[in-house]
């Protein structure tokens, strides 16, 4: 980013109008247009800032811009409002000088935004801290509150300030804000009751109706519809770019930050609502018996609601609108009000109520933001007030506004000349008297205590008898007729008798900014600003907390028969106080100009800007500044800027800066009458001299730039050449290294090939010798073998002829067997007993041996596998093996039992305390304990029984009580009968004639049938005194129940009603039929 060190660098047009050459009104306007077209909205006139309203957002108010202008010289950067704000703040902080910033311009020129920018800049550059930040926030948030109650939409500006504001910001010795005081001037209270076409009432009315909640509006007795209120104009109720609802929330938040209590905010809103209700009160005429007319209220609903809001008796306020009481010494006279007088009283009450509310808001804000410390403070004042106003129809408001601007112009000229003179004296420069127009004569015409227009207006208002605007004009024509700045058609001055541009009911004043025609209609009423005492007393009787404070004159105990001061007198006094305040401070000026009336960007209207430049006195300001010396600059920056123009000062001057400047100016042969040397600055009289220096500097900079370019390009080329040279050396070294490596690898590869060929030749030579030697040895061996064989055959020929064939056969067989066994050794299968693999036999005659070896090997590895078992595992496998021998391929239930381990004691008899009694009744070791179902022959249903198997007996016990029901010694069992199906039924058949056979056989059912039968079979086989237990597997067998024999028959059923379970039913006395599911 380009960094500027002076406003003369890269100027668009002329940044300081003092340097404009040639100086004329046309060149002045053209320079403003040129800069405006390039988005340069700020221009200087010395230390005065001209601000053009761009009507759009520009990227020149960012935090980066704040830092750029912070602690910089005023002329160091391009013209900007931040430069003026920084200059004022730095002078206040560092030099202990109170400052004031005067912002003037007509409505829509951007005065309010300019004041916000100044305050935001000061807030950004001053100190930080919790308390400081709170003060800054309160100062900044006072703006939205005052804008809501004091700003309105006009034809020229959507956010026009309809009051003058002066804020004193107080700082401590460090430059941190402590607080502030706000003064307001001339609120345009007539806007409350009437607005010109295309304009609105004050913002707060629209914000309240748009942004307040339904509950709040209900409490205030309001409706959102603007058309229901007479005081609100409807043609401009909605404004593009203004969000009244959002602004209302902003105002509520700002009031909270400033320090308003919630009940205070509610009271303010109630008064605003009361003003709206007041505007809806209408009157009708009513004739009295004495022939006079009096007024009556048409609809009392709005009056009733207003009285409820303010806490006033309806009858009291209604009488105040109908009668007026006049007191004179000891007499009281009550007169009726006609309709027009009643409307006047209503509007006067509305204007006074709103105006006093606004003054109370300013006072309340001052209480919150005022400095708490009692020590001396540094003060910076910011004045945002109306600019000079010239309308088609100018009345009392424009008259006093223009009077204020005359006073501001007067103090501006005085302070500017005084500042110039003080600087000349400070620098030791001879002071030359400057001719300028002194507008003191105009100020005297208006404010003179005896013959001034304001004094005569007050005198006319206080005069007994009939007082009208015409009598006031007649008085002016009599007293001011000879004044050179006063013009009237009816005056004694004959030169205006034929001036048809001057109506009979008007007078014209020639202000410093031009002639202004004032219509006298309404001057007397507006200056009187009367509020009938009956209304003041009615307001004082209100129970509302705020109303009593706003109308103290209504107190009956403090009746003052003196007339209140007029509006003109009050404004004149406040302007005098303001002028005295400003004269104690160092002034800084911002002149705001609006480029067009359309409120549009990129449009520059010459006539409008020319008109504003005239009444702001900008040309007069430039002439005053240029009357002495047009430009001045401290020696150090001047020498730093122009030292390249002289060989003796370039590039470094070793002596004092003033001597360097003197050498520089002498070397450039600048005429001595064009400049003067001060104590710390050089003063240049004519802008042409400055432009001559700038032109020489520009040419010299071009030469220096060429020299710098030449040196830089030479350095760059040398650096590039050295870099190329260095790079070439590096590349050459790397290439040589690469080439040598490549050559070495090639030689190494060739050497390796030669070595391999030589070694190959040597190896092949040695191989041939070894092969030859081996063939020789083999030949010798072969010859020796043949020879020995021949010798042996000769000697043993007689023995070989008899059994040579048998020996050869035996030898061959022996070799084959040897080869077979060696091969079998390497192809032996794994040691797993289930591995059925075995190598194929190589010869058919080995078939028997091959099979026998397979059997022996299998038996051997099975023995090896069994040797790994513990005794418990052997017993389990023996039981499983026995179960296989009994049931395999005989009973359908068997395959599902193979994977289930035989647990034996399923009930844990010895551990379960429930069966402790049963465990003690059985002395022997329990081999199997399980729950079985004992089948009843009567109905085929089962009864749960505990089945215990010991080495000597079978025990059946009750499942619940553990009581032994039957105990059968194993020798008494003859056989066990089961079916071939997947059921769990089995019958224990007892030997006839045994003691246990008295009750008959047992027909039981169990889920562990295979395990029970297997253990019974094994236990019976091992018992010494019992025979082998027979296992009868058949689908039909007989069971002896006491004296009867019953046939138990098993059948397969396709589907059973109770699912897949086995069912047993009695068919007759001799048959029990068991149905087994086919899928089981």
At the fold tier of CATH, the topology name of the domain at 872-1077 is: PH-domain like
Biggest sheet: strands, sense, closure?
Answer: 8 strands, mixed
Name the CATH architecture of the domain at 872-1077. Answer: Roll
State the end-to-end CA separation.
95 Å
Broad structural category? alpha+beta
So how many helices?
A: 30
> For the largest beta sheet, what order do the strands appear in spatially?
23-22-21-20-26-25-24-27
Average of pLDDT: 83
Unreliable sequence segments: none
User: CATH H-level name of the domain at 872-1077... which superfamily?
Assistant: Pleckstrin-homology domain (PH domain)/Phosphotyrosine-binding domain (PTB)
CATH C-level label of the domain at 872-1077: Mainly Beta
Shape: elongated
Region (Actin-binding): 575-597
Family: Belongs to the TRAFAC class myosin-kinesin ATPase superfamily. Myosin family.
GO biological process, one term: actin filament-based movement
Pfam family, one: Myosin_TH1
